[in-house]
Amino acid sequence: MRRAAVAVAAGAMAVSLAACGSAKDSGGDDSSSSSPVKKGDDIKVGLLLPENKTARYEKFDRPQIEKKIKELTNNKAEIQYNNARQDANLQAQQVDTMITNKVDVLILDAVDAKAIQNSVQKAVDAGIKVVAYDRLAEGPISAYTSFDNVQVGKTQGEALLKALGSKATKSSKVVMINGSVTDPNAKQFKEGAHSVLDGKVTVAKEYDTKEWSPDNANSEMETAISAIGAKNIAGVYSANDGMAGGAITALKAAGVSVPVTGQDAELAAVQRIVTGEQYMSVFKSYPQEAQIAAEMAVAVAKGESLDSIAKDKVSSDSAKDVPSVLVPVVSLTTDNINETVVKDGFYTVAEICTAKYKSACDKIGLR
Question: How large is the angle between the packed helices 286-302 and 62-72, nearest 10 degrees?
């Protein structure tokens, strides 16, 4: 599965950006120009990321996007960056600033996919193309790249069932800690997980966790333990690693160790996987996703076609057939740490196997 994922994503990144412009690149773009104005390398790109509590955005997404944009424009592009710090109102203000600064294209990872719709429309009305990144924002989006989010949920659900083994019965009680309702990805993760878990185990308690907060997940897990009984919980579906950490803290306090899922391959989660506190995470190649977003942004800013980059189409409530690239995912367990996060340069073995984790690393052969 790993090799296939890399091959698909690498193929998506290897495409040429030299194609000529088409009449309409975006399913949601109302532009009627039959011959888009071509621009050179001196474009202005706005980059808006949603929050900085999750390690990935500053560690992987931002530097990879900026690096690729510079490569594609012979270092001539100007990049303006802001992080919304999980504040939808602040992000709307940041879009206004990008409009005032007259960027040519905006790469947007929305805090709240629905609330940002008016801001997206304002940007497009000002002649700025919008590339939705990681989350499909509402509004006239020109392009979108993310991961197959339903498959993410399925991957998590399948891993949880595998971890439960013979305990995966209809009488086995599982707690589901989903992501924020403001994030459209969370809905898809949940959909994928339910498609695997329903009928195989009993979802005894389920939560949609505000702001993906680990603290909120910790409180939810404590509530579930009180309601179900610590010894009656067979496993926990957590939609991401941060919340998995919060849930595991509550489980440990109750003296319980059960399989827990996650997502994002955060360093702390990888270390929990090494020790057995967390069963799995979902490895997502953020560098691949970031580079595709940069390719899309440079192409639409220059008035070039996305046909050679985006082979898929997705739709939201407000935009139909948006040119898209969905990057595959991999289930990360003790079996493939070397072949995933280490091989792709996320972390070194030394970063994972600090003194606290050295003996656990030795047990699983991580050296």
Answer: 40
Tell me the pLDDT tens digit for each residue of 257-271: 999 999 999 999 999
How much of the chain is helix, strand and coil, in % rounded to 5?
45, 20, 40
Mean pLDDT of the chain: 91
Distance (Å, whole) CA 236 – CA 325: 30
- By the 8 A CB rule, do 253 and 276 touch? no
Whole-angstrom distance, CA of residue 282 vs CA of residue 225: 25
Length of the chain: 367
Which band of pLDDT confidence, cut at 50, 70 and 90, is reported for residue 18?
A: very low
- 241-253 burial by CB neighbour count: b if 16+ within 10 A, else e? bbbbbbbbbbbee
Q: Which of 299, 324, 322 is nearest to 311 (CA)?
A: 324
Two tokens at 133? 């990144």
Residue 327 and residue 60 in contact, taking contact as beta carbons nearer than 8 Å: no
Closest CA to 29 of 111, 128, 116: 128
- What pTM does this model have? 0.80
